[in-house]
């Protein structure tokens, strides 16, 4: 019932039916700009709040009566100084960087070979293997961390960065392989055939022809893998005990959160600085990022 | 490197290198080693651990279904199952509705369109734990900015106890999860929207379709396959969520927000009962499969039906 009346309403107001640019401005404000503004405000407010808290002096942090909470009078760098010079934060940042880079390079290397083999070498059973890679991507870390802790312990890499560098590929390799398979598929077979006729080996074809053509795919996969490993939490929480090996998310949560008195300024500064590297990386490669995200979904 | 150096000198080796199966095996080897060591083996090991009474620092013995029998009588476990289902269901629906709306908005002729698209994805890019910390501060029981704003506006009298009350806590963690999940749904659906040919919309509007009819009978059917995949991923990530709960509530108050993943962690790692934790993780699998089947085939079938009508 409702829809029919609503439809009639729209027929009446929407006489200039057709392209959206013909819609009158007031209507566009209500149906487009206003909701958009609300979305952007809600999605970005936590970041603003993070940033403003990180530079607020402690006296203003909880004094909402004398100072407007939305703004800061006389911003301070105390929280950031405390974070950088009196905690292990720089070390965590370094660890996260090492782990993310290590696991990304490792996964990307393994994925290039795997994706090429599945997509182009066409060995017996390459189709089922490709499907298994996709299924592996669907296995969530939260059902793997207990047995993995066991295995990491048996390998003797418990509580070391190697534990993370070796376990992150479990979710990075399936993702990168799946993404690269799509890219390799788009490279014409003829290029490869003519190289084969000219006597190139498979290795030469991969290095000289396929990889240069797949550079956008490699960037997408690499950036996405880096972000995923930067953001990983449950493995890092389970496999790392000592403070000097912790990653940023784990370090901030387990060492900066102490007792009942929260150092909100330092905590938010930690959250902000931990987010910055991925945000900067993301801002440079937005399109690659979007294409890897949607690429994985579309396949 | 080793492939070329070992492949060059002898001719028998060279002909072996021409064989696709040998070559495929070699190329698959690095990925296979990782995935077998750290994915397939742990999956099997997890199932096995679920049948043992392993604790941290002590190898367990096989105890059959005892862990599962214990869990079946454990009200906290069933509460966590309920919480997980509620969390997944509500958060997924909200993410879908709001994400689709945002995707439709972004698909319009907006000024600074690519800038907006880039900005909107930010919640999904930053580490969940770190944005969850910001939410923790936003949900603070005394100094919550939401409470303060509402009090200033005269909507409420005292601060809202966001994370201390079971119902509020559930709503709060769902809101934080939706906040983080919207961008993924929106940007993926936007990619789908952009593949719908404009000529279809034009043809529909020439035939006199209203904007709602164009959405309902052109956009939505064209979008359903992508919706099915996006929502399957979304359900999967929501169902197995751990980080958000671990930061915001650690499962409290009175286990009202304990998800199966957080319960599994709590019993397994700080609690030391690896066997029981693994059993909870294994118990997630059937629910997870059901949730994926539901979202994937539930949405996929509508595509077939609509395809059949055509």
From TrEMBL, chain A:
Location of the ABC transmembrane type-1 domain: 93-285
Domain of life, per lineage: Bacteria
Localization annotation: Cell membrane
UniProt-listed GO biological process terms: transmembrane transport
Regions crossing the membrane: 29-51, 92-117, 129-153, 165-184, 205-228, 264-290
A Pfam family the protein falls into: BPD_transp_1
Entries under PROSITE patterns matching the protein: ABC_TM1
SUPFAM superfamilies in UniProt: MetI-like
Keywords assigned: Cell membrane, Membrane, Transmembrane, Transmembrane helix, Transport
Membrane topology: Multi-pass membrane protein
GO cellular component: plasma membrane
Gene3D superfamilies referenced in this protein's UniProt entry, alphabetically: MetI-like
Family stated for the protein in its record: Belongs to the binding-protein-dependent transport system permease family.
Protein name per UniProt: ABC transporter permease subunit
Native source species: Rhizobium fredii (Sinorhizobium fredii)
UniProtKB/TrEMBL annotation, chain B:
TM region(s), chain numbering: 21-41, 85-106, 118-139, 178-196, 217-239, 278-299
Main location class: membrane
Keywords: Cell membrane, Membrane, Transmembrane, Transmembrane helix, Transport
Compartments reported by the entry: Cell membrane
Bilayer disposition of the protein: Multi-pass membrane protein
Swiss-Prot/TrEMBL GO biological process terms: transmembrane transport
Top-level taxon: Bacteria
InterPro entries from the UniProt entry: MetI-like (IPR000515), MetI-like_sf (IPR035906)
Any one GO CC term of the record: plasma membrane
Keyword Translocase: no
PANTHER family: BLR7065 PROTEIN, SPERMIDINE_PUTRESCINE TRANSPORT SYSTEM PERMEASE PROTEIN
Protein name: ABC transporter permease subunit
């Amino acid at each position: 019932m409702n829809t029919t009346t609503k439809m009639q309403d729209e027929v009446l107001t929407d006489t200039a039916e057709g392209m959206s640019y013909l819609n009158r401005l007031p209507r566009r404000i209500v149906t487009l700009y206003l909701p958009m503004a609300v979305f952007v405000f809600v999605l970005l407010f936590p970041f603003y709040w993070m940033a403003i808290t990180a530079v607020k002096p402690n006296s203003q942090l909880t004094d909402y009566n004398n100072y407007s909470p939305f703004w800061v009078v006389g911003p301070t760098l105390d929280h950031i100084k405390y974070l950088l010079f009196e905690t292990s934060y720089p070390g965590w940042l370094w660890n996260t960087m090492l782990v993310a880079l290590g696991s990304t390079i490792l996964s990307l290397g393994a994925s290039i070979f795997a994706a090429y083999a599945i997509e182009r070498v066409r060995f017996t059973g390459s189709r089922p293997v490709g499907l298994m890679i996709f299924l592996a991507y669907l296995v969530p870390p939260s059902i793997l961390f207990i047995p993995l802790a066991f295995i990491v312990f048996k390998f003797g890499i418990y509580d070391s960065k190697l534990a993370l560098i070796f376990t992150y590929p479990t979710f990075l390799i399936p993702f990168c392989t799946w993404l690269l398979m799509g890219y390799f598929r788009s490279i014409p077979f003829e290029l490869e055939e003519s190289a084969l006729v000219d006597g190139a080996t498979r290795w030469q074809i991969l290095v000289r022809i396929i990889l240069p053509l797949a550079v956008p795919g490699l960037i997408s996969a690499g950036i996405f893998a880096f972000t995923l490993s930067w953001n990983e939490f449950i493995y890092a929480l389970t496999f790392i005990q000592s403070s000097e090996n912790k990653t940023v998310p784990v370090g901030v949560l387990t060492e900066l959160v102490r007792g009942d008195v929260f150092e909100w300024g330092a905590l938010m500064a930690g959250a902000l600085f931990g987010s910055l590297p991925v945000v900067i990386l993301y801002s440079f490669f937005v399109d690659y990022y979007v294409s890897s995200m949607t690429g994985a979904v579309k396949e | 490197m080793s492939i070329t150096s070992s492949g060059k000198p002898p001719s028998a080796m060279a002909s072996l290198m021409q064989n696709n199966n040998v070559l495929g095996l070699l190329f698959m080897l690095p990925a296979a080693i990782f995935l077998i060591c750290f994915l397939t083996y742990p999956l099997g090991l997890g199932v096995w651990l679920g049948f043992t009474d392993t604790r941290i620092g002590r190898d367990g013995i096989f105890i059959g279904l005892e862990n599962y029998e214990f869990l079946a009588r454990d009200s906290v476990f069933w509460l966590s199952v309920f919480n997980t289902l509620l969390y997944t269901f509500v958060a997924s629906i909200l993410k879908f509705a709001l994400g689709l709306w945002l995707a439709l908005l972004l698909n319009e002729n907006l000024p600074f369109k690519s800038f907006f698209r880039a900005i909107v994805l930010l919640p999904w890019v930053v580490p969940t734990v770190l944005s969850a910390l910001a939410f923790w501060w936003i949900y603070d029981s005394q100094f919550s900015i939401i409470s303060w704003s509402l009090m200033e506006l005269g909507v409420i009298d005292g601060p809202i106890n966001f994370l201390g009350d079971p119902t509020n806590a559930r709503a709060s963690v769902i809101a934080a999860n939706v906040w983080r999940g919207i961008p993924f749904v929106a940007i993926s659906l936007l990619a789908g929207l952009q593949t719908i040919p404009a000529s279809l919309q034009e043809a529909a509007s020439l035939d006199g379709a209203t904007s709602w009819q164009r959405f309902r009978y052109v956009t939505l059917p064209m979008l359903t396959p992508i919706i099915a995949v996006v929502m399957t991923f979304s359900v999967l990530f929501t169902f197995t969520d751990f980080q958000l709960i671990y930061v915001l509530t650690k499962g409290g108050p009175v286990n009202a927000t304990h998800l199966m993943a957080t319960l599994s962690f709590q019993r397994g790692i700080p609690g030391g009962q690896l066997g029981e934790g693994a059993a909870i993780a294994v118990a997630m699998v059937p629910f997870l499969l059901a949730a994926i089947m539901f979202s994937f085939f539930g949405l996929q079938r509508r595509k077939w039906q609509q395809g059949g009508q055509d």
